Amino acid sequence: MNKILNILIVALVIFIFAGCGARPPQPYGPLPTKAQVEWQQMEMNMFCHFGPNTFTGNEWGDGTEPEDLFAPTDLDCRQWVEVARQAGMKGIILTAKHHDGFCLWPNPCSQHTVAQSQWRNGKGDVLRELSDACHKRNVAFGIYISPWDRHDPTYGTPEYNKNFVATLRSAHEHYGPIFEQWFDGANGEGPNGKRQEYNWKEFNETVLEKHPNAIIFSDVGPGCRWVGNESGAAGRTCWSTLDIDGFAPGTGLPVTDTLNRGNVHGQRWVPAETDVSIRDGWFYRSTEHPKSLKQLLRIYYTSVGRNSLLLLNVPPDTRGRIASEDSLRLVELRAALDDIFSNNLMHQGHIVTHHARNRHFGPQHLTDNCFDTYYATPEKQTTDQIEIAFDKSVTFNRVVLQEYIPLGQRIQQFHIDILSDNGQWRTIVDETTVGYKRIVPVATVTTTRVRVVIDQSFACPVLSEMGLYLDNYLNDSDVEDI
Ligand code: FUL
To answer: Quick one: which of 34, 39, 315, 374 has the most CB atoms within 10 Å?
Structure first.
């Protein structure tokens, strides 16, 4: 009897210890919602600026454009969706209403819509066609609806806010699910020379009422924030946390540098979204051409590679199709990215870490290609070294690190060393934040040993994935400033 009791006690102790070992790290700081994590994992989405400006060549319409101006000759939203899919983009956001006030759907709250135009005898509906095409092909659908309206005569009065809420409701009721609502902060004058005081609280509530998981973009979130520029670059230091109390989109936004880098101790999780156009302008113009593959790769590194989501604008032309030069460039971009990131050189090496929490959170998770499993150190251990030793030397120029963000953004400072021929460690780069994804471009190096040294972290580091890659599409000189 005693023997059985002893065995039971030993079994219990083993069970308790094994259980403790499997205990995950405590979360740190503000955390993303499940929807924000899924949004971040999309990495790259397509923005489509389309409307009267497509036909005038203007960037901002003044609201006096006749409805008949909007006359795409061969609209094919399924083509937009296929282009996005081929580029590996997971969602599309359409300018359903830009500052000129023209609505690409028959919005019952407006007399300035496709329904008042002769296009398809007033029966056309771009939101219907694009949302159907997206949902059919498993591409998420999002909308940009500009609060600034240069056409609506009520703009500048409390009446306008009511009208805008009804406009939002009309779009959100009929074309969902909608994964992202894009609120442009621009707040200029309306047709009567007045500015509007926007009721952001009600606007946000209206969106969330219908789509509680929608990510609301604005200068200051709440779902995600503007990155502070339109050139495609998040901060080299980029926190997903931001202080938003006391700030508002448009006129009351924090300084752009803060939007670019976030706040290290920010109170809310409001990750950066980098919106940039494949061409010079936001709307299509036959005189402009898409950026080069090299430029787009650089943008990828300074956005997705800096803990931000890339929202790349690809404007449909006057036919209502994406021009072939743009779609070909996107195919090239996808092929290059797939090629660069298909071969993680870490698989050829042997990983040694100094402070693995235990076997449940060991270094094997760094290269298992699974975001939800991760490497972690013990709770109080906030520094570490992850060393990779190779039998045969490897050549690389990109280092990828990913934090498991459902437990917060933790790493503050890290550097990367390689073992030189003289047997000495040499630091090749010193960096700050990681976040959901950090791609560190380094000058091409060949070595048998690499180590990532985590110098400072607010809580024990929790790393989901790690990789060493070789990019042969850009020269070292192309990336030396990023
Ligand atoms: C800006 C707008 O004024 C531009 O026209 C464009 O839509 C861009 C994405 O946002 O604030």
So the answer is: 39
